[in-house]
Amino acid sequence: MDREVIGAIGVGVMILLMFLRVPVAMALLLVGWGGVTVLRGDRAADAVFSADTFGAVLNFDLTTIPSFMLMGYITYVAGFTRDIYDAARIWFGRISGGLAAASTMGCAAFAAVSGSSLATAAAMGKIAVPEMLRRGYDKGLATGVVAASGTLGSLIPPSVLMILYAVFTEQSIALLFMAGIIPGILSAGIYIGMVLIRARINPKLAPGMAEKTTWGEKFRALKGGWGIALLFILVMGGILIGVFTPMEAGAIGASGAFLISLFSGRLTTERLKSAFADTLRHTGSIFAIVFGAMIFARFMALSGLGQWMADMAGSVSDHVIPVIIALSIIYIILGTFMGSIEIMLITLPIVTPIVESYDVSLIWFGVIMIKYLEIGLITPPLGFNVFMISSVVGRAVPIQSIFRGVMWFLAMDVLTLGVLIAWPQITLWLPDVYAEWMSFLRNAQLGSFQAIWLWMTGGLNGAAG
Question: 266-269 long-range CB contacts below 8 Å, 24 or more apart?
Fold first, then answer.
């Protein structure tokens, strides 16, 4: 039997196991170990199992996952999430659709420190949805905007999905973080634009608040968002100018979140315990999937299935766009019944060789893939973010109304995806700037702070020369 056929059978068995409710981590591990056994024997399978799982534990890039997750959970239990939403509500609440726009802004801001779409949707759902329903918002819009905006947690860095993608495709985490910033802002902006246009056409859909707020109240409300803003500037700014690596940024971000919450008087022992417990629980589940995915990826590499599919794709079309469109459809379908992390780690060993065969930037494709996964999080019949919001609001809003509400945002996601595919430079501009800056620092043999000081004092050109 050809090894490619064995690889295809392995993929089919894995999908069957998941439909039978076998845990994803176990399905990946069993199929990966079994596939390597068939191809190379049980001794090779045992060697792969021990080497890959041990290698995963020693992969320092993966240490960014628990540190960034801890940063997000600390800011959540400390109440900074509500501060962000309250500030946006006070500034924009009187506009028709303003509370929905404020919800998107709150999700985008919390995404900048959480790294998880489900965590973002859950956090903002408890705060924003009851407020919008109390103000007479359409139930579908009130729930749909938070379910959709929660997906920004995967795109706006720091992102757990970006870290995993970088590790499995051997790309730079820092470059991926830079690549996600502009597409994330673009996605949030398109959501807000659509909501405000719909509210302008039909004010009953999203009425503005009747209460008036003074400029003093508006500026005082901004003080609540200083913690999130400081953390984002500290983490992403530090990475951008080269002060520290993404691994160091995760530890600094978690430490910063702890100190900001502690000195603001918002961190109790119980809240800190809750943040650590949630971080350990979710990190454990992610690492279990990572272990299984590494064994499965080794099986896919030995089977040659990914390269065979790349050759097939090349024989069908010389241009990457038809392939990207086909992958878009496949990922959106997968997103209707599987979680984001599972989809990514299962498909990367197969899809990466196809994309590489077209000489496409894997940094750009990483953002496109995460956008696929975002769409899957709100696509029926199993949009995870939709069910997360449903669990938050309970019987107040039927699940059908939430899915009806997200359809508008789903259309906006498709629009955003089209823009990012048509103009890759939107995604790649900031990573290119970052790469040039880091190259300059290495060539000039300067430290980040020294280079910034020279730039401020006008001496940078001389140093470059």
Answer: 266/78, 266/79, 266/80, 267/74, 267/77, 267/78
Which of the four pLDDT bands, split at 50, 70 and 90, describes residue 448?
low
Residue type, 389: I
Spell out the SS3 assignment of the chain: CCHHHHHHHHHHHHHHHHHCCCCHHHHHHHHHHHHHHHHHCHHHHHHHHHHHHHHHHCCHHHHHHHHHHHHHHHHHHCCHHHHHHHHHHHHHCCCCCHHHHHHHHHHHHHHHHHCCHHHHHHHHHHHHHHHHHHCCCCHHHHHHHHHHHCCHHHHCCCCHHHHHHHHHHCCCHHHHHHHHHHHHHHHHHHHHHHHHHHHHHCHHHCCCCCCCCCHHHHHHHHHHHHHHHHHHHHHHHHHHCCCCCHHHHHHHHHHHHHHHHHHCCCCCHHHHHHHHHHHHHHHHHHHHHHHHHHHHHHHHHHHCHHHHHHHHHHHHCCCHHHHHHHHHHHHHHHCCCCCHHHHHHHHHHHHHHHHHHCCCCHHHHHHHHHHHHHHHCCCCCCCHHHHHHHHHHHHHCCHHHHHHHHHHHHHHHHHHHHHHHHCCHHHHHHHHHHHHHHHHHHHHCCCHHHHHHHHHCCCHHHHHC
Record the pTM: 0.83
pLDDT in tens, 27-65: 888 888 888 898 888 888 888 777 766 766 677 778 888
Tens of pLDDT along 156-191? 888 888 988 998 888 998 899 999 999 999 999 999
Question: Tokens 């490619």 map to which residue?
Answer: 4
